[in-house]
Write a structure and sequence with these properties.
six-stranded mixed β-sheet, about 35% helix, Rossmann fold, about 500 residues, alpha/beta, about 25% strand
């Protein structure tokens, strides 16, 4: 028997199987990938293993002994630590307090020992090579990438024997993705089991030893990762069908008419003299390491930040006062954190989609239900949202379908300018392909797309042009043959600066 054995695990919700008779195993000393589309059962299986869910049937064995896991505290007793896809932290607490919550040391007088807490956090940062983290920073104020690192360190601080990383790379910048892959290998070399979920095939090939595949809640098979691994076969096993080319063919529909423009724009320390243009019919990628001003750039165009300098829309100087003004003027933002910024998780799909178009659907404070149903139906069909009904709660959807609902809400506003913040983060291969195709179709219609992604390959394969940000300014502008991974990464880390004038 392997070191971790799952035997005949089944789990259903309201009579619908999320897991059906899953039997698979993992070994100490390996990084074991768990693959499948969103909704395939990966997260449900991990929640069974980590004690968040109790299986309807089946048994779990750890080191040959049957494990009785009925709660997260039970899982911790068996040495299981899980970094979930959806972040879970308390914004008003510090980074150190979040990492050691429930274990904060106390003085002999019974109060929290903040000096000792800071020391523990700094030792943890040194151990896992994250010198940029500030233990005293409020968790709600740090970048998404740093929040993800904080969640990883929270789990590693408990020294688990089985480490579960559920889409942990999806919120990380390029340099920290490599850090996590190397960390997963280090943990495996220490004799731990690392269960790794990612929808990025390059990460699977670079960082994992074996792959187990789920589809529609069922176990499909396990493959060794080696030079002869056929990734097309793996994708076919995940989807149950062969998938045509993953990235769409790019036909450049960009014009010479700028949709948005910045001239020497500054904002606090985040934007330091930004000069750039986004053209109609163009997909303009935004790249760079974490915290270089990419998020603030998108948010400035959406009216979240009051910037200094000149902002132009369709050639006319404008003051984008707030998001309401932006939406009224056909600018829409797909936000960074869909579960917090993009959705009302405890409300239905229909409400989430129609809320941004409520003015078009209402008369004298009354919502025209027929118009609302038609609008929701149009965009759920367009985006192929998979749900029992349009009244299903957003919280019940997989990550990919949640992102589709956010996209449906944005598209229902009929914007001319799309600001997209890492829209494929944490979504499966099939949904990513649909998103890529949708982005190119939007550009084909003559609309402008500002497309930020932490995945450099996406930027290279989806965008007409890519700008690179560092220290709050544009330091690279690549198009055509110059638009490649090497140039993007080189500009990100300061090896090369070129094309920073943002001309076409």
């Amino acid at each position: 028997m392997d070191d971790l054995q799952l035997n005949h695990i089944s789990k259903s919700f309201s009579g619908n199987y999320a897991l059906r008779d899953i039997t698979m195993s993992c070994r100490c000393g390996e990084v074991h990938a768990l693959l499948g589309e969103n909704g395939a059962g990966k997260s449900t299986l991990l929640k069974v293993l980590s004690g968040a869910y109790h299986p309807d049937e089946g048994e779990i064995y750890i080191s040959g002994e049957k494990a009785f896991i009925h709660s997260p505290s039970d899982a911790m007793k068996y040495g299981i630590g899980c970094v979930y896809q959806e972040l879970s932290f308390i914004p008003d607490l510090t980074v150190a307090e979040n990492i050691f919550i429930g274990r904060i040391p106390k003085t002999r007088f019974g109060s929290f020992d903040h000096k000792e807490l800071r020391k523990m956090a700094l030792e943890l940062f040194r151990k896992y090579d994250v010198p940029e983290m500030d233990p005293d920073a409020k968790a709600g104020m740090i970048s998404l990438s740093q929040k993800q690192i904080m969640e990883i360190l929270k789990v590693l601080s408990k020294d688990p024997k089985i480490v579960i990383l559920d889409e942990a790379t999806s919120a990380l910048e390029e340099n920290r993705v490599r850090w996590l892959l190397e960390l997963a290998r280090r943990l495996a070399d220490e004799g731990k089991i690392v269960l790794f979920i990612s929808h990025r095939m390059a990460e699977i090939q670079d960082g994992c030893d074996r792959i187990s595949i789920l589809r529609n809640g069922e176990y499909i098979g396990t493959r060794d990762v080696n030079e002869n691994l056929d990734m097309d076969e793996v994708i076919s096993m995940m989807l149950g069908r062969k998938m045509s080319s993953y990235f769409p063919d790019i036909i450049d529909h960009s014009t010479t008419e700028p949709a948005l423009e910045m001239q020497n724009v500054t904002y606090e320390r985040a934007l330091n003299g930004v000069n750039m243009k986004l053209y109609k019919g163009e997909v303009l990628g935004v790249a760079g390491l974490a915290g270089q001003g990419q998020t603030e750039l998108l948010q400035a165009f959406y009216g979240i930040h009051k910037v200094n300098g000149t902002v132009l829309m369709n050639g006319q100087q404008v003051n984008i006062r707030n998001p309401k003004w932006a939406i009224a003027n056909k600018i829409a933002l797909v936000p960074e954190e869909r579960g917090i910024q993009g959705l009302f998780l405890n409300l239905g799909i229909d409400f989430n989609i129609s809320i941004s178009s409520i003015d078009k659907l209402s008369h004298a404070l009354l919502v025209n239900k027929k118009k609302e149903e038609d609008l929701v139906s149009k965009y759920t069909n367009l985006l192929s949202v998979k749900a029992a009904s349009t009244r299903s709660l957003a919280s019940e959807l997989s990550g990919g379908n949640q992102q589709k609902v956010v996209m449906a809400k944005i598209m229902s506003c009929e914007p001319e300018i799309f600001l997209m913040h890492d829209i494929t983060r944490g979504v499966d291969i099939g949904t990513k392909k649909e998103m890529f195709t949708l982005v190119r179709q939007i550009a084909e219609q003559g609309k402008a797309v500002l497309y930020f992604s932490t995945d450099v390959e996406e930027l290279e394969r989806i965008c007409d042009r890519v700008i690179v940000m560092r220290d709050g300014r544009v330091v690279g502008d690549f198009k055509g043959a110059e638009l490649n991974k090497e140039n993007i990464i080189g500009a990100s880390i300061g090896i090369e600066e070129r094309g920073a004038s943002s001309g076409k």
